[in-house]
Amino acid sequence: MSDITLYELPGCPFCAKVRTKLDELELDYDVIEVPRSHEDRTEVERVSGQNGVPVISDESQDVEGMHESDDIVEYLEETYA
Predict the structure, then answer these.
(1) Engineered SS bond to 3: which of 20, 24, 52, 59, CB 3.0-4.6 Å?
(2) Which residues, listed in sequence order, are joined to residue 63 by a DSSP beta bridge?
(3) Which residues, including other chains, have CB under 8 Å from residue 54's CB and lie 6 or more apart?
(4) Is 41 helix (H, G, I), strand (E, B) or coil?
(5) CA pair distance 81, 51, nearest whole angstrom
(6) In sequence order, which residues have a C-beta less than 8 Å from that of residue 7 and are 6 or more positions away?
(7) How far apart are CA 23 and CA 7, in angstroms?
């Protein structure tokens, strides 16, 4: 199990942007695919307070439920680049 968890929806371009950055930085991460229906995204809502994706949690940095792909990419670059 990795410290970083990515909540994503397959085919989501914003999720793909975050995945690309995680892969560029060669970071280990777990992926949780969320349901297509916003109403069924209870786990991601519990973690982040909202039901959009992408969302990441990074246990090693005490980050839980960060959303917005640009913010996530900036965080990853500042923390791991």
Answers:
(1) 59
(2) 58
(3) 6, 7, 8, 12, 14, 15, 17, 18, 67, 69, 72
(4) coil
(5) 28
(6) 32, 34, 43, 44, 47, 48, 53, 54, 55, 56
(7) 15
CA 2 to chain centre: 13
Is-above-0.90 flag for pTM? yes
Residue with tokens 């994503």: 8
Sequential pLDDT tens for the chain (81 residues)? 789 999 999 999 999 999 999 999 999 999 999 999 989 999 999 999 999 999 999 999 999 999 999 999 999 999 999
